[in-house]
Write a structure and sequence with these properties.
single chain, about 280 residues, alpha+beta, five-stranded mixed beta sheet, globular, DNA-binding
Length: about 280
DNA sequence: AGCCCGTCCTGAGGGC
DNA sequence: TGCCCTCAGGACGGGC
């Protein structure tokens, strides 16, 4: 599933590949995947890509003349830019292709989304920052303004377990299931620990862990478990060295104990029962 | 406010 | 071989 490192990787790729390209046609193969909230005269055709921004897991492609395309990939979305030859070798379009943008140069941008949860939404650029989803996002962990004090304040805003808080995009923008589990293992914090029981030391460890886990994954081009591909159609390799995600029953890389899998906040949650001690174990 | 569930969806994988 | 069932889960809306 595309989280911050995957979306950042796609952003970097799209910035290389489609900035300056002019849209010549838009094919919508699954209507729910594409919607316009812009005036009817504001269509993408005839407009050039000016740049790509990322807000948490959301990508915003800005065009000239106050038009932007917001892209949320959710679970299985892909944005792959390909020349006709590259599209042939990648076998695109395929049965999961929902939208195709064709540029005047012949380059095409494929929005693939097996599960159809993702969305492309056309909006005026001047309304992007006031979009309800974007406006309510918490701080971005890769932003310089993200500090241990800010993490402390954000976690205090939510009274739930720490795993649920990390998944909440209002607390932090961009962390999803994979990196929440990896960061909690790295910081040696049990996923069910209530946010108000976290010590200052634990929060500082968690802060460092979030940053290092995300940075490492960006360096490795993100995580490909099933669907994720970069803008060039390549896989990410982070999961080759993941410590807990997808490793239930395998030995902990720190102590050898079998990695456990439980359900927290409705998501499959992986942790080391020895390295990540349960909360309030002394009061049980 | 927080929790849980349903909704949106397809395809992989387990069981028989 | 094949079919049915469960599971995977990001974000959101509704009910309690």
């Amino acid at each position: 599933m595309p989280e911050l490192p995957e979306v950042a990787t796609i952003r970097a790729g799209l910035t290389r590949l489609i900035v300056g390209e002019e849209v010549s046609s838009v094919e919508v193969l699954w209507p729910k995947s594409y919607q316009s909230r812009a005036p009817t005269d504001q269509e993408l055709v005839g407009h050039k890509v000016q740049g790509i921004r990322r807000f948490g897991k959301l990508l915003v492609i800005d065009f000239d003349s106050n038009i932007s395309l917001m892209a949320h990939l959710r679970m299985t979305g892909q944005l792959i830019a390909a020349s006709p030859q590259q599209a042939d070798s990648l076998a695109l379009p395929d049965r999961s292709t929902r939208v195709i943008l064709t540029f005047a140069s012949g380059l095409r941008l494929f929005f693939n989304d097996q599960r159809k949860f993702g969305r492309l939404v056309v909006v005026p650029t001047d309304r992007v920052s006031s979009d309800p989803f974007i406006a309510s996002l918490g701080p971005d962990p890769t932003d310089e303004a993200f500090t241990p004090a800010k993490l402390t304040a954000r976690l205090a805003s939510r009274r739930t377990n720490v795993k649920g808080a990390l998944l909440d995009q209002h607390v932090l923008a961009g962390v999803g299931n994979i990196y929440a589990d990896e960061a909690l293992w790295t910081a040696m914090i049990h996923p069910l620990t209530p946010t108000d029981e976290l010590t200052g030391t634990q929060i500082r460890r968690l802060y460092s862990a979030i940053k290092s886990v995300l940075t490492t994954s960006i360096d490795r081009g993100g995580s490909t478990s099933r669907n994720y591909l970069s803008a060039e159609g390549t896989r990410g390799t982070y999961l080759d060295q993941a410590c807990v995600y997808g490793r239930a029953g395998q030995p902990c890389r720190r102590c050898g104990t079998q990695i456990a899998k439980i359900k927290v906040a409705g998501r499959g949650t992986h942790y080391c029962p020895r390295c990540q001690k349960p909360p309030s174990c002394h009061s049980l």
